[in-house]
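A reminder before we start the practical. When you read a complex entry, don't treat the lines as separate problems. The point of joint prediction is that each chain is placed relative to the others, so the output describes one connected object in space. Small molecules and nucleic acid strands, if listed, are placed in the same frame. In the example below there are four entries. Take a minute to note the order of the lines before looking further.
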Amino acid sequence: MIENPSASSVGLRRDMEILELLAGHGGGRDVDGLGVSWIAQRLGREKSQVSRALRSLESEGMVERDPVTRRYRLGWRLFALAARTSQSRLVQVAAPFLRRLAMIIDEDSHLCVLRGDSVLTVLSVPSSRAYHRIWEGVAIPVIMAAASRSLLSDWDDDQMRAILRAKLPGGLSAELGDEKQWLADAAHVREHGYTTTDVELEDGVLGVSAPVRDHRGMVAAAISVSVARVRDEARLHEMGRLVGETARQLSIALGLPPGSSFDYPVTSGP
Amino acid sequence: MIENPSASSVGLRRDMEILELLAGHGGGRDVDGLGVSWIAQRLGREKSQVSRALRSLESEGMVERDPVTRRYRLGWRLFALAARTSQSRLVQVAAPFLRRLAMIIDEDSHLCVLRGDSVLTVLSVPSSRAYHRIWEGVAIPVIMAAASRSLLSDWDDDQMRAILRAKLPGGLSAELGDEKQWLADAAHVREHGYTTTDVELEDGVLGVSAPVRDHRGMVAAAISVSVARVRDEARLHEMGRLVGETARQLSIALGLPPGSSFDYPVTSGP
DNA sequence: GAAATCGTTGCACTGGGTGCAACTAGTTTT
DNA sequence: AAAACTAGTTGCACCCAGTGCAACGATTTC
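Here is the predicted structure of the whole assembly.
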């Protein structure tokens, strides 16, 4: 058999597929929870296998079963474990900062981290306006996230080029912006402490992001704000300065020594 | 232990033991993360077994490895799974708690969440008495909801003041109570685990509410009960204690580590 | 009440996990 | 610098746990 270098055991893979399915369908509006047969069919596995796997997962508290509908959903144990991840601490420290930021500029604010070749949003604070999609827990490819510019900002140019080329499957490269723009954006982050992404992610929305550093000065996360397209260039960069300043304060709250070489002043500039 | 009737598969049990160990020692001790041999010894298992299990877990993102120290800690996948479902799970898990509460005190009980600058009621359990308005799916402004006191209870005073001022359009401020009362109510929540709102929302009705925390300890929702105005102050606070205790138990059911700093005892007091 | 759906269980088979030991790699000791 | 020690990975033979099929009980549907 051809070995996957990062191979996972069959049992674990099956369990993870089940958990992922339960998580994915958690946002469903209809009835909540999934039945054994539905999961089995969706996964292309034996009913019996899924039934037994779920019972095991239940006995460990990873899933729980509704006593009446007999449907499964994710369990308390998973949430308890999640609370102990490194992301969890980050979120708790960052929450007040993002709330304040969202209140001031009244736009959706997100906290994103880099995981592998995806950008994971770990905290979303919606603006006061209407309903916006919650991105928490959702991972999107590096090249499609506005926050990537900040997350990758202190990578070598070569490494950045490498990940961009690897992750741009042909045709997409044109519409998603070229390397030069990425490198320029990263440079802007290094100089000014934030960057704006003029690539359209959604209609009429700009991305403003800034890097958050941990105690060692390494980029640990990024604050990303979706800004409704504005004509006023100056106002956009004023927002950028605000995002950058918030990221700087959050970095210090996370243990970045104030005044260190990484704790540079945030300046507003094109 | 002799024999668990609802037995878990061998592989899963081993994986869970590992994850639990990582969770227990990941919470900021000396150095972050655990090594293979240490885990193996602690679990009384073969090194090789632990080594392979951890590699599988890593490939699924359940754990992640520090590239330099080669130590493992809990991974982003746990966080991502939990974040995506905590919302929808809330209602399912909360339902029995609210039903029980409504049965004991025989008043309308509601579960409310904060969305943007509105308070959304996601679950309503009516009392046995006659007709009461159903609030499910209804969003009302923060300043007009009794549950807000609990939902905002661990915000900074500054942030709370900010949202109050921003959302009080002039003339309304007078009749809806002043900032001091809000801050006092929030403080009461932090100290006693619940609060009562003596501002009249409807005729002769008081609002009793308590914060529900998610696995991270953040306020995720609030239980809010409309109590027919009672003369007896002591009875009101006894109800408050009951609401607070229900919210506490619900929090734990949602994954809040029992005994954590957020899991404070609920006390009845003015 | 027949039929369909959903979930669980019994059982023979086999493939993946297990434990031992050898191995590499890094660090400290002599 | 060789030896000794620690940390982690890998090869391999054995064998038990997981697999798939099918039958079964429990509900729901028509």
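Discuss with your neighbour: Chain B has two domains: 10-74, 84-253. What might explain this?
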